[in-house]
TrEMBL record:
PANTHER family: THIOREDOXIN, THIOREDOXIN DOMAIN-CONTAINING PROTEIN. This is protein-disulfide reductase. Residues 1-104 form the Thioredoxin domain. GO terms for molecular function: protein-disulfide reductase [NAD(P)H] activity. It is an enzyme of class 1 (oxidoreductase). Belongs to the nucleoredoxin family. InterPro entries: Nucleoredoxin-like, Thioredoxin-like_fold, Thioredoxin-like_sf, Thioredoxin_domain. It comes from the Eukaryota. It comes from Emiliania huxleyi. It catalyses: [protein]-dithiol + NADP(+) = [protein]-disulfide + NADPH + H(+); [protein]-dithiol + NAD(+) = [protein]-disulfide + NADH + H(+). The keyword Repeat applies. The keyword Transcription regulation does not apply. Keywords: NAD, Oxidoreductase, Repeat.
Length: 104
């Protein structure tokens, strides 16, 4: 509901990915700057993790300061992550895909 009618960044990443660990701090800075500016539409991000173990994803997000939404670590969320990966042709990480979420 929170994302309807918004532009959203889907951030594909994993705790074991070196390039992701270098890019994530830059994305955290951008996210925090947008939040501080209190833009009316803000910047919404969703973490789409390629981690197989939920604890690794949670610890990576915590350590990196990712304060945005994340797909939960569940069978259903894994299926959604796989679907998003295919839909947006994500073949490597890190990847940031910007989409507009329908208001319907």
């Amino acid at each position: 509901e929170r994302l309807r009618g918004r532009v959203v960044g889907l951030y594909f990443t994993a705790s074991w990915c070196g390039p992701c660990r270098r890019f994530t701090p830059k994305l955290v800075q951008l996210y925090e700057a947008a939040a501080a500016a209190r833009a009316p539409d803000g910047l919404e991000l969703v973490l789409v993790s390629w981690d197989e173990i939920g604890d690794e994803r949670r610890e990576y997000a915590r350590q990196a300061g990712m304060r945005w939404l994340a797909l939960p670590h569940s069978r259903e969320a894994r299926a959604l992550a796989d679907e998003l990966t295919l839909r947006y042709d994500v073949t490597s990480i890190p990847a940031l895909v910007v989409v507009e979420v329908s208001a319907d």
